[in-house]
Amino acid sequence: xGSARCTGRLTGLAVAVPCVAAVxxxxxxxxxxxxxxxxxxxxxxxxxxxxxxxxAAPPVGRRGLPWLAxxxxxxxxxxxxxxxDDLPTLSDLADPMxxxxxxRGAATVGWLLAGCWLVARPGRPERS
Length: 128
Fold this sequence. Notes:
Distance between the termini: 17 Å
Number of domains: 1
Number of strands: 0
Radius of gyration: 17 Å
Order of helices and strands: HHHHH
Number of helices: 5
Strand content: under 5%
Structural class: mainly alpha
Protein backbone atom coordinates (compact mmCIF):
# COMPACT_ATOMS: atom_id res chain seq x y z
CA UNK A 1 0.00 0.00 0.00
CA GLY A 2 2.83 2.41 0.85
CA SER A 3 4.51 1.65 -2.46
CA ALA A 4 1.33 2.46 -4.39
CA ARG A 5 1.00 5.78 -2.53
CA CYS A 6 4.64 6.65 -3.29
CA THR A 7 4.14 5.75 -6.96
CA GLY A 8 1.02 7.91 -7.09
CA ARG A 9 2.86 10.87 -5.61
CA LEU A 10 5.76 10.46 -8.03
CA THR A 11 3.31 10.27 -10.93
CA GLY A 12 1.59 13.42 -9.66
CA LEU A 13 4.92 15.21 -9.53
CA ALA A 14 5.78 13.99 -13.03
CA VAL A 15 2.58 15.65 -14.27
CA ALA A 16 2.68 18.74 -12.02
CA VAL A 17 6.26 19.91 -12.54
CA PRO A 18 6.12 20.19 -16.35
CA CYS A 19 2.64 21.71 -16.16
CA VAL A 20 3.69 24.43 -13.71
CA ALA A 21 6.90 25.08 -15.67
CA ALA A 22 4.96 25.46 -18.93
CA VAL A 23 2.42 27.83 -17.33
CA UNK A 24 5.12 29.98 -15.72
CA UNK A 25 7.20 30.15 -18.87
CA UNK A 26 4.42 30.49 -21.47
CA UNK A 27 2.73 33.54 -20.00
CA UNK A 28 -0.84 34.28 -19.08
CA UNK A 29 -3.60 33.42 -21.53
CA UNK A 30 -1.18 31.74 -23.93
CA UNK A 31 -1.65 28.62 -26.01
CA UNK A 32 1.21 26.86 -24.19
CA UNK A 33 -0.34 27.50 -20.77
CA UNK A 34 -3.76 26.44 -22.03
CA UNK A 35 -2.39 23.18 -23.44
CA UNK A 36 -0.40 22.43 -20.27
CA UNK A 37 -3.35 23.04 -17.95
CA UNK A 38 -5.84 21.34 -20.24
CA UNK A 39 -3.62 18.31 -20.76
CA UNK A 40 -2.96 17.94 -17.04
CA UNK A 41 -6.66 18.33 -16.35
CA UNK A 42 -7.50 15.57 -18.80
CA UNK A 43 -4.92 13.30 -17.14
CA UNK A 44 -6.25 13.99 -13.64
CA UNK A 45 -9.85 13.44 -14.81
CA UNK A 46 -8.88 10.17 -16.51
CA UNK A 47 -7.14 8.89 -13.37
CA UNK A 48 -10.22 9.79 -11.33
CA UNK A 49 -12.57 8.05 -13.74
CA UNK A 50 -10.43 4.94 -14.04
CA UNK A 51 -10.02 4.69 -10.27
CA UNK A 52 -13.71 5.42 -9.62
CA UNK A 53 -12.69 8.27 -7.31
CA UNK A 54 -15.35 9.29 -4.85
CA UNK A 55 -17.64 6.29 -5.36
CA ALA A 56 -17.28 5.14 -1.74
CA ALA A 57 -17.71 8.64 -0.32
CA PRO A 58 -21.07 9.37 1.29
CA PRO A 59 -23.56 11.26 -0.90
CA VAL A 60 -23.37 15.02 -0.68
CA GLY A 61 -27.11 15.64 -0.54
CA ARG A 62 -28.34 19.15 0.23
CA ARG A 63 -24.87 20.27 1.36
CA GLY A 64 -23.94 20.48 -2.32
CA LEU A 65 -26.65 22.99 -3.24
CA PRO A 66 -24.53 26.10 -2.45
CA TRP A 67 -21.74 24.71 -4.65
CA LEU A 68 -24.23 24.00 -7.40
CA ALA A 69 -25.53 27.58 -7.12
CA UNK A 70 -21.97 28.96 -7.39
CA UNK A 71 -21.27 26.77 -10.41
CA UNK A 72 -24.49 27.90 -12.10
CA UNK A 73 -23.61 31.55 -11.41
CA UNK A 74 -20.12 31.13 -12.90
CA UNK A 75 -21.45 29.40 -16.00
CA UNK A 76 -24.14 32.07 -16.42
CA UNK A 77 -21.53 34.84 -16.06
CA UNK A 78 -19.30 33.26 -18.70
CA UNK A 79 -22.16 32.72 -21.15
CA UNK A 80 -23.45 36.29 -20.75
CA UNK A 81 -19.94 37.78 -20.98
CA UNK A 82 -19.17 35.80 -24.12
CA UNK A 83 -22.37 37.10 -25.74
CA UNK A 84 -21.90 40.71 -24.57
CA ASP A 85 -18.44 42.06 -25.44
CA ASP A 86 -18.74 44.85 -22.83
CA LEU A 87 -18.64 42.40 -19.90
CA PRO A 88 -15.30 40.84 -18.88
CA THR A 89 -14.93 37.07 -18.66
CA LEU A 90 -13.44 35.44 -15.58
CA SER A 91 -10.16 35.10 -17.48
CA ASP A 92 -10.15 38.85 -18.10
CA LEU A 93 -10.77 39.52 -14.40
CA ALA A 94 -8.02 37.10 -13.30
CA ASP A 95 -5.46 38.35 -15.84
CA PRO A 96 -4.01 41.17 -13.68
CA MET A 97 -3.56 38.80 -10.73
CA UNK A 98 -1.93 36.13 -12.90
CA UNK A 99 0.39 38.46 -14.80
CA UNK A 100 3.37 37.60 -12.58
CA UNK A 101 4.94 34.17 -13.24
CA UNK A 102 5.06 33.26 -9.52
CA UNK A 103 1.32 33.92 -9.14
CA ARG A 104 0.57 31.82 -12.23
CA GLY A 105 2.71 28.99 -10.85
CA ALA A 106 1.01 29.16 -7.43
CA ALA A 107 -2.45 29.18 -9.02
CA THR A 108 -1.51 26.16 -11.15
CA VAL A 109 -0.20 24.27 -8.11
CA GLY A 110 -3.44 25.04 -6.26
CA TRP A 111 -5.49 23.85 -9.21
CA LEU A 112 -3.49 20.62 -9.44
CA LEU A 113 -3.76 20.03 -5.67
CA ALA A 114 -7.54 20.39 -5.89
CA GLY A 115 -7.57 17.80 -8.68
CA CYS A 116 -5.34 15.43 -6.71
CA TRP A 117 -7.61 15.78 -3.69
CA LEU A 118 -10.60 14.83 -5.82
CA VAL A 119 -8.76 11.84 -7.30
CA ALA A 120 -7.66 10.66 -3.82
CA ARG A 121 -11.27 10.40 -2.58
CA PRO A 122 -12.28 6.84 -1.74
CA GLY A 123 -13.09 4.62 -4.70
CA ARG A 124 -15.03 1.41 -4.86
CA PRO A 125 -14.90 -0.62 -1.69
CA GLU A 126 -12.65 -3.68 -1.92
CA ARG A 127 -14.64 -6.92 -2.19
CA SER A 128 -13.23 -10.03 -0.63
